[in-house]
């Protein structure tokens, strides 16, 4: 038996969660068990050339303003570290993480791009935030923890002021924002790098929010306070609310090739290309006789001879159970209906009329195969949910195969 040193062990043990990179420009050979041709379990394919395309479309739509790519929630299911490193190669202006541990993981992986932690932080974490050159969202007097850490480390703490102009989750209320901004700015240890607000994505109220936000920025300016980069436009704002583009835009889901709403999906004001595909291989093929059933409580009972194929993908992988009986899956470039239930690890499809389907054939749960496509929006519609929940709901332990540009 081969003895592995620590580096080799970590490389192999961590490969399944970190993913592999394949394609023309890959500089490292992927661990063989993660190559798509060797996978028996379902896997995700992430197409970085489509991600680069989406970034270019967003930059153009935003008039080539700086871009802060939001990579919270495991980069919307696309893999946090790999996505962060990809955007760094694309010379992204800023990254935004949703939680401190995400920001820390990016820094520990070697990502040096300016990075904002949108989430909360504790006293213990304040020192690491300053030490790791992470910018921090602030909206309460807890910013004083960053002042203490900066004094101890003899360096500046970078912050982005979060203003609640109406979304109502977190942020200093807009009508009390100016005193807070003055309090933060009074500390020499603090560098105000930016100021931002999230929209409700209600067309009329967004205009009210923007007006409130700009009034606050102007009031701070009148008092001689520089608030840095003003940013408000997420994906919806980038597409449909140009006045909100300001000094920097903050795309999330659009950068992964998905539209932020059904309305935007139908309008397609810019051409976005989906980055993520969910795939699996046929694990079993059989023909049901009339009266035979599939799944718990005999959820599907064959009325006649019915050929079916079972796939090793289920709700534990993030495929929504609510899609059963409505969803379709691509196999041999054609759409086939799901039957019975989506269980934790299995989905069954009716392949009546197919020829030559065999164990090991590639099936596409969402993505392209041949000239056909099933989108994540399709799956969301079948499941009665949003495309955000489909992407973010992908199991982080699924193997991820990265297709490079």
CATH topology of the largest domain: TIM Barrel
Molecular shape: elongated
Strand content: 15-25%
The CATH top-level class label of the largest domain: Alpha Beta
Can you name the CATH architecture of the largest domain? Alpha-Beta Barrel
The CATH homologous superfamily of the largest domain is called Alanine racemase
Q: How many whole angstroms does the radius of gyration measure?
A: 24 Å
Give the mean pLDDT. 91
Strand pairing plus helix content: what structural class? Answer: alpha/beta
Strand tally is 21
Number of helices: 14
The largest sheet, given as strand count, sense and whether it forms a barrel, is: 11 strands, mixed
How many structural domains are formed by the residues?
A: 2
- Low-confidence blocks of residues: 1-33
State the distance separating the first and last CA atoms.
Answer: 38 Å
Can you give the helix content as a percent range?
Answer: 25-40%
